[in-house]
Amino acid sequence: MRRSAGALRHNLARARAFAPGRKVWAVIKADGYGHGMEWAAAALTGHADGFSVSCVEEALALRAAGVSAPVLVLQGARTAAEWDLCSRHGLQPVLHDEAQLAVLADFRGELPGLWIKLDTGMHRLGFAPMKAQTLFQRLRDHPAARRGLHWLTHLACGDQIAHPQNAEQLDRFRHAVAELPGQRSVANSALVISGGAAGSASAEWTRPGIMLYGPSPMEGEVGRDRALRPVMTVTAPLIAVKTLEPGACVGYGATWTAEGSTRAGVVAIGYADGYPRHAPSGTPVLVHGRECPVIGRVSMDMLEIDLNGVPDAVVGDTVTLWGEGLPVERIADAAGTISYELLTRVAGRLRVID
């Protein structure tokens, strides 16, 4: 697996271009969407305004790696010990549930910022928008909010520009926080790319995630449609080449049968490495810059491809599974999943080349 810090920084610059004047929480949770969280933070230090992670454990790993930038913890702190860690390490947790409020009542530490999440329609984490004023009154004098009490929400359908729920959620958020002090954050990658960040309740912060790594979050698009560059390129060697006679079956379950003489190749990668087992025959790979289809079922450590279109392919050649020249969105579409899943499932046994 190759990864490009230059591409990562380029994509961050694109996020800024889509939402000029906004600060950026670069989302590097889930091990940097499979690219390496500490690596992503190092590559973006001095470029992003802060980093967004899922949990306190991820935030502490950043601090241990020497990252001093602001860190937003999306799931917030759950226990008294985690609230203390947020204070000690200068983290900005998100408050989203009554159970957190109960623990927060006994916490007297200061934070660089406390964010309140409002559930405007995602129905996952967050308080009802109608509670915003009550929460502000309850927390404005709390030591945890002394240096800033801020607001955020998350859109359920941001990747569908015309979906009516987007406007409804933005309106609910805007009305809930209209008279309240503090900064706001609404736009994820989809809202940034669609241009919605410009009017998202005057939010000062965006939270781009998937677009930083190259894919487009928008339905029916690939990253290059928005001038994004793939950060991850997954490759594997061609370890065998053979000629199949007409009628020969390939792989477990004999799900693919050669209709004519077929030059086939075996690639040393499989579902144990993070390649989707359910990728069907016809899913593309690249050999010598030319597309070849996967044939048969993906195995644990290997998959097979049709090399009829690349007669000069030989054992030892490099096969690109996704990345430069082959958008990961195409493999995700073929496998019936999303690019997020493929990127985050890449196994640790792949050798990383920077």
Helical/strand content category: alpha/beta
- Low-pLDDT parts are none
Q: What is the H-and-E element order?
A: EHEHHEHEHEHEHEHEHEEEEEEEEEHH
Name of the level-1 CATH class of the largest domain: Alpha Beta
Q: What's the number of helices?
A: 11
Strand content: 15-25%
Overall mean pLDDT = 95
Counted up, domains total 2
CATH superfamily of the largest domain: Alanine racemase
- Tell the overall outline: elongated
Quaternary class: single chain
For the terminal residues, how far apart are their CA atoms?
8 Å
Radius of gyration: 23 Å
* Proportion of residues in helical segments: 25-40%
- CATH architectural designation of the largest domain: Alpha-Beta Barrel
Descriptive key words:
11 helices, elongated, 21% strand, single chain, six-stranded antiparallel β-barrel, Lyase, Ornithine Decarboxylase, Chain A, domain 1, 2 domains, eight-stranded parallel beta sheet, alpha/beta, 354 residues, TIM Barrel
Architecture blueprint of SSEs:
Blueprint (H helix, E strand, L loop, with lengths): L1 E2 L1 H14 L4 E5 L1 H5 L3 H8 L5 E4 L2 H9 L6 E3 L6 H9 L2 E5 L2 H7 L9 E4 L14 H8 L9 E4 L11 H14 L6 E2 L3 H6 L10 E2 L25 E13 L4 E2 L5 E2 L4 E6 L16 E4 L2 E6 L7 E4 L11 E5 L5 H8 L3 H6 L10
Parallel strand pairs: 2-3, 2-9, 3-4, 4-5, 5-6, 6-7, 7-8
Antiparallel strand pairs: 1-10, 10-13, 10-17, 11-12, 13-16, 14-15, 14-17, 15-16
Characterise the protein shown here.
- This protein has eleven helices and 17 strands.
- It is α/β, with parallel strands linked by helices and 354 residues long.
- It has two domains: 2-216, Alanine racemase (TIM Barrel); 232-344, Beta Barrel (Lyase, Ornithine Decarboxylase, Chain A, domain 1).
- It has an eight-stranded parallel β-sheet with strand order 8-7-6-5-4-3-2-9.
- Strand 14 and strand 15 form a beta hairpin.
- The chain starts with a strand and ends in a 10-residue tail after the last helix.
